[in-house]
Amino acid sequence: MAKPTAPHLWTDAAVYTGDTAQAHTRRLDVLVQDGTIAAVDEHITPPANCTVHSCGGRLLTPALIDCHTHVVYGGNRAAEFQMRLDGATYADIAAAGGGIVSTMRATRSASVDELIAQSLPRVDSLLAEGVGTLEVKSGYGLSVEAELNMLRAARRLEGLRPVRIKTSWLAAHALPPEYQDRRSAYIDEVVLAGLARAKAEGLVDAVDGFCEHLAFTPEEMDRIFTFASGLGLPVKLHAEQLSNQGGAALAARHGALSADHLEWLTAEDAAAMARAGTVAVLLPGAFYMLSETRLPPVAALRAAGATIAVSTDCNPGTSPLTSLLMAMNMAAVLFGLTVGECMHGTTGAAAKALGLAGVTGTIVPGAAADFAVWNASSVAELVNPIGFNQLHARYFKGQKV
User: Fold this and answer.
1) Contact criterion met (CB below 8 Å) for 273 and 252
2) DSSP state of 1
3) d(CA 359, CA 69)
4) Which of 71, 148, 271, 387 could bridge 304 with an S-S bond, Cβ 3.0-4.6 Å?
5) Cα distance between residue 134 and residue 66, in whole Å
6) Angle at Cα 193 formed by Cα 189 and Cα 194, nearest 5°?
């Protein structure tokens, strides 16, 4: 058994606890023992052998959580950016051999070490903004071994940096060229067979898919989700991004952790998600990069009582965004989220989207001591700036990093 460490107490802080979509802060003290928040109160008397840290009136929040990323991949797709500027659509680029398949080639050719080396700068960019937990998806290998290598890289990243990483198996992202006329075989031989191996190797925390007219149907995703359930794995889904395919309703029926994108979501499906406890993850980076005009139905999500999260969707093509602070600003400006919704969307709501509610994302007793101290006094000061990082210090499991 590890020897208990001395307690640490943070005082004189404007604390946003992360458990509400209201932007309220309170003057609170936070006591940490052995990497866990032991107490949160207006005034805590320091226990014996306690180290006291004054925040000097600064804002203290949970460490941020980026709950939807594709941060591990090979190569880049900067050339496609120019294609889009010249008028090509998402579907045009995919039909020309670009898009996900382009990244597939670069990812397949990279070793695990090379994937780590290419991913670390992106991870470091996020951590430098106070992020303490990341979700990392596969989905660019599109073969069993290449998909496994992506998750092997993700697992190793957690050992190289002070960060918590949750992994998602996303082999149902696109069809590789060798399976273009054999959809069912791809699901059998890559998606399901590879998932079984990923589970056996301890590489996977959840199962994801891309339910869209240019990807996988609800019927195909239902089959994949049923298999995942048999392995005891939770599910999530890229749904209703480019069209209404019924993916969010499917996700809700399976009790999914989240459904993500959601520009074409209906009010009925928003209600189904709320009843199922499925988090709505909004991804303004992709909306911005694709010059979309159809907004996700935020009012319907609010009316249904759905939990709303915000993430970067960091990926090489449609959202090359490595700033969660920027994603918060974009969610406010483009989607009309409130300051409190943006902040909750990257803390407590994002934790729920990863199955981590109560583990991280909130400043409450029993949660991990993952928090950030900012050179600010209000939550609005984090959401308002564009490209300005006010991080003063980040703590992971009680340790300054």
Assistant:
1) yes
2) -
3) 20
4) 271
5) 5
6) 105
Separation between Cα atoms, residue 83 and residue 69, nearest integer Å? 23
Q: Which helix (H) or strand (E) is 293 found in, with range?
A: none
- Of residues 237, 301, 241, the one with CA closest to residue 274: 301
The three-state secondary structure class of 208 is strand
Place of tokens 């898009």: 99
Residue 187 and residue 174: Cα distance in Å, rounded? Answer: 11
- Tokens representing 152 are 């092997």
Is the distance from CB of 59 to CB of 211 less than 8 angstroms?
Answer: no
Distances (CA, A) of 87 to 6, 93, 287: 60, 10, 16
CA 355 from chain centre, in angstroms, equals 11
2 pLDDT band, cuts 50/70/90, is low
Within 10 A of 15 (CB to CB), how many other CB atoms are there? 21
* Closest C-alpha to 170, from 96, 84, 302, 70: 70
- pTM as predicted: 0.96
Helix (H, G, I), strand (E, B) or coil at 44: coil
Q: Which residues contact 87 (CB under 8 A, 6 or more apart)?
A: none
CA 11 to chain centroid = 30
Q: What is the pLDDT of residues 178-200, one digit of tens each?
A: 999 999 999 999 999 999 999 99
The alpha carbons of the chain give a radius of gyration, in whole angstroms, of 21
CB within 8 A of 217, min separation 6: which ones?
211, 245
Q: Report the C-alpha gap between 401 and 399 in whole angstroms.
A: 6
Q: What is the rounded end-to-end Cα distance, in angstroms, of the chain?
A: 24
The closest of 334, 280, 290, 340 to 311, measured between CA atoms, is 280
